[in-house]
C-alpha cells in the first residue's frame, strides 16, 4: 500500500497541501465531518485556531480508531465559516497541522460555508484515508 503525493512543478507551489495524491492497495476509510466538539457534545474554543486544533484532533481520533495514522490521509476538506479569517490564521493553522498530523499533506480544499451544524462551530474537517 502506498500514498504518493504529486506536486507538478508547473502548478503553484503546494504549501500545506498536495495537488494530487494517488493510493494503491489498502482499505478506504471515509471520515465524517468533525468540528470542535468535546466528549459531551459541546463546541469548545472561541477562536478559529483553537477550534481547528480540536476538530483536527477529533478527525485524527476517528482515523486512529479505524487503525490509521495521519500519514494515511489522502484527502481532507475544510469547511470554514470565515475564509478570510482562515487565510489570516493560515500560518498558525499550519503549525497546528504539523504538530498533530506531521508534514505529509493530503490533497486539500477549503470551502466557505454560511454556517455549520452547530452554530458556534467555525470550522469542520472531513477526510478520506487509505490504510494498508
Features:
132 residues; alpha+beta; four-stranded mixed sheet; two-stranded antiparallel sheet; 3 helices
Would you give an account of this structure?
With 132 residues, this protein is an alpha+beta fold. It is 27% helix and 31% strand. The chain is built from three helices and six strands. The protein has helices at 48-65, 83-88, 90-101, and strands spanning 2-6, 20-24, 27-34, 73-80, 107-112, 123-131. Strands 3-6-4-5 form a four-stranded mixed sheet. Helix 1 (48-65) packs parallel to helix 3 (90-101). The mean pLDDT is 95.
Quick summary of this structure?
The protein has 132 residues and is α+β, with helices and mostly antiparallel strands. The chain has helices at 48-65, 83-88, 90-101; strands at 2-6, 20-24, 27-34, 73-80, 107-112, 123-131.
